[in-house]
């Protein structure tokens, strides 16, 4: 799962990205070990793994991971190919969703590109570049569809959606804010539009606002109000504090968070929101060798979930011995849960649920 971090210059992107790389997942656990400099990999926090780890006294715990891409280089005019514009846009095209860092801190030592802090204007600047790029795609597609039309009902329907998107973009509104039917969304997905990508607005506040004002200030309120128009999520962080947190060992880290009056780090909040945003869930596997979380899209069936572990298990799938994590936790062990009949034998049409602890049976 890839997420791209974007934002205007001097909003705190690098600071946040440094925190991400420092907090980085142990590379040994992940297949993609050669990581480019602009990629940070972090583990997805999952308390359930700790419980399973104790229950099974397992040797190893493997969390699932998220990749963050630092996509710097946006300037006004990117969609017209200015600066590193084209490269910037093509990087965004590759990510599943966007984290847009918005400056919500005042600091006279840090210059704002426009001279004053204005989250709405910042958001608009970036969103418009994506919108301009989408407009070009849509216009080309409209021309093509018109040519091919010749009474084709399906194409007629598509043309109507394309026209609707065009009008929206011309108003400076991102496609993700549109009110569309499921069928329409499925078509929109095939267009690979940048402004249709799910987004998290990451409001970067000062250390003081984080601690003293419960992470609120007038800028954050503006970001929230805007995000609402797009049904987008807002995560408030202080990039500077995140960087400090990322440098600490686990115990020190917990103490520091407590001192700040925080339940979890901003980075953890960001990771969890990203997971949610992309409609991802985790299923778990557990044994004395290792306990492990696996990422799947909500709605994935058992054999395809098994395929995440190994394609052989998907191919030879027989059944999934499944128990909900909470049931397993409540009974303290698999044996006790089995006695109560809580372990289900699920077949190939079973839709895997978040927190399912699964043992796959398969033919080799
Ligand atoms: P980028 O251009 O978006 O990558 O921004 P940087 O991460 O380089 O940050 C620009 C400047 O803002 C640096 O001097 C940072 O130390 C400062 N900065 C970033 N985040 C915060 C923050 O949360 N609080 C304060 N006071 N300064 C910050």
From TrEMBL:
It comes from the Bacteria. The keyword NADP does not apply. Residues 231-258 form a coiled coil. Keywords: ATP-binding, Coiled coil, Magnesium, Metal-binding, Nucleotide-binding. GO terms for cellular component: cytoplasm. SUPFAM superfamilies: P-loop containing nucleoside triphosphate hydrolases, TGS-like. InterPro entries: ATPase_YchF/OLA1, Beta-grasp_dom_sf, G_OBG, GTP-bd, P-loop_NTPase, TGS, TGS-like, TGS-like_dom_sf. CDD domains: TGS_YchF_OLA1, YchF. The keyword Nucleotide-binding applies. Residues 279-362 form the TGS domain. Its cofactor is Mg(2+). GO terms for molecular function: ATP binding; ATP hydrolysis activity; GTP binding; metal ion binding; ribosomal large subunit binding. ATP binds at residues 10-15. Residues 1-257 form the OBG-type G domain. HAMAP family: YchF_OLA1_ATPase (MF_00944). PANTHER family: OBG GTPASE FAMILY, OBG-TYPE G DOMAIN-CONTAINING PROTEIN. Belongs to the TRAFAC class OBG-HflX-like GTPase superfamily. OBG GTPase family. YchF/OLA1 subfamily. ATPase that binds to both the 70S ribosome and the 50S ribosomal subunit in a nucleotide-independent manner. This is Ribosome-binding ATPase YchF. It comes from Maledivibacter halophilus.
């Amino acid at each position: 799962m890839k997420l791209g971090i974007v934002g205007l210059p001097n909003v705190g992107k690098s600071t946040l990205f440094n925190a991400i790389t420092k907090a980085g997942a142990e590379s040994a656990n992940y297949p993609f070990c050669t990581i480019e400099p602009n990629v940070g990999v972090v583990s997805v926090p999952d308390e359930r793994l700790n419980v399973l780890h104790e229950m099974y006294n397992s040797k190893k715990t493997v969390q699932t991971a998220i990749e963050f891409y630092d996509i710097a280089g946006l300037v006004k005019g990117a969609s017209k190919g200015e600066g590193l514009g084209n490269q910037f846009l093509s990087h965004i095209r590759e990510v599943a969703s966007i984290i847009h860092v918005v400056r919500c801190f005042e600091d006279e030592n840090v210059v704002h590109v426009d001279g004053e802090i204005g989250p709405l204007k910042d958001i608009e600047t970036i969103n418009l570049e994506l919108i301009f790029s989408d407009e070009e795609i849509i216009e080309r597609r409209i021309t093509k569809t018109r040519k091919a039309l010749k009474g084709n009902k399906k194409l007629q329907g598509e043309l109507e959606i394309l026209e609707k998107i065009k009008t929206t973009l011309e108003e400076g509104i991102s496609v993700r804010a549109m009110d569309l039917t499921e069928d329409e969304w499925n078509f929109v997905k095939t267009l690979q539009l940048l402004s249709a990508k799910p987004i998290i607005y990451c409001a970067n506040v000062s250390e003081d606002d984080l601690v003293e004002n419960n992470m609120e200030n007038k800028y954050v309120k503006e970001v929230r109000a805007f995000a609402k128009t797009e049904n987008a999520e807002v995560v408030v962080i202080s990039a500077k504090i995140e960087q400090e947190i990322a440098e600490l060992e686990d115990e020190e880290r917990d103490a520091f968070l407590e001192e700040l009056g925080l339940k979890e780090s901003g980075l953890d909040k960001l990771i969890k929101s990203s997971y949610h945003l992309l409609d991802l869930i985790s299923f778990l596997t557990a044994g004395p060798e290792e306990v492990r979380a696996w990422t799947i899209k909500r709605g994935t069936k058992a054999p395809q979930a098994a395929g995440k572990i190994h394609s052989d298990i998907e191919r030879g799938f027989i059944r999934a011995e499944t128990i909900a994590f909470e049931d397993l936790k409540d009974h303290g062990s698999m044996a006790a849960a089995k006695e109560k009949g809580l372990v289900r034998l699920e077949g190939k049409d079973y839709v895997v649920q978040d927190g399912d602890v699964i043992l796959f049976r398969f033919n080799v």
